[in-house]
Amino acid sequence: MEKKGGIAAKFTELEKIAEKLSDGSELEEAVKLYEKGMKLAAEIRDYLAAAEKKIQVLGENGAVTEKREDELGKE
After folding, report:
1. By the 8 A CB rule, do 17 and 33 touch?
2. What is the separation of C-alpha 62 from the centre of its chain, rounded to a whole number of angstroms?
3. CA atoms of 66 and 56, how far apart (whole Å)
4. DSSP string for residues in 15-75
5. 59 vs 51, 56, 65, 66, CA distance in Å?
6. Which distant-in-sequence residues (6+ apart) come within 8 Å of 50 by Cβ?
7. What is the DSSP code (8-state) at residue 1?
8. Per-residue pLDDT tens digits of the chain, which is 75 residues long
9. Cβ–Cβ under 8 Å, residues 18 and 5
10. Is 4 in a helix, a strand, or coil?
11. Is the overall model pTM greater than 0.70, yes or no?
12. In the prediction, which pLDDT does 26 show?
């Protein structure tokens, strides 16, 4: 589970950082914002990679189960 507001909050924060950087920050502040943005981007990328590995499969009884890609076809 994502904490601190989840993935949507991370995207919003990253967008705000990009806006601040495009407004022309001082060099020291820009470096800090860039570092924070890169860290957020890495967290988002990791979250999306993990989510991509999970696939929801609709079972015979109508129940939705989560399976990893390597588990598909193995019953």
Report:
1. yes
2. 29
3. 5
4. HHHHHHHHT---HHHHHHHHHHHHHHHHHHHHHHHHHHHEEEEE-TTS-EEEEEGGGTT--
5. 20, 9, 7, 10
6. none
7. -
8. 445 579 999 999 999 999 999 998 899 999 999 999 999 999 999 998 888 777 666 666 667 776 666 665 665
9. no
10. coil
11. no
12. 93
In degrees and rounded to multiples of 5, residue 33 shows phi and psi of -65, -40
Element (H, E) at 14: helix 6-22
- How far from each other are the two terminal CA atoms of the chain, in whole angstroms? 26
Q: Which residue has the tokens 């920050």?
A: 25
Structure-token pair, residue 7: 């993935």
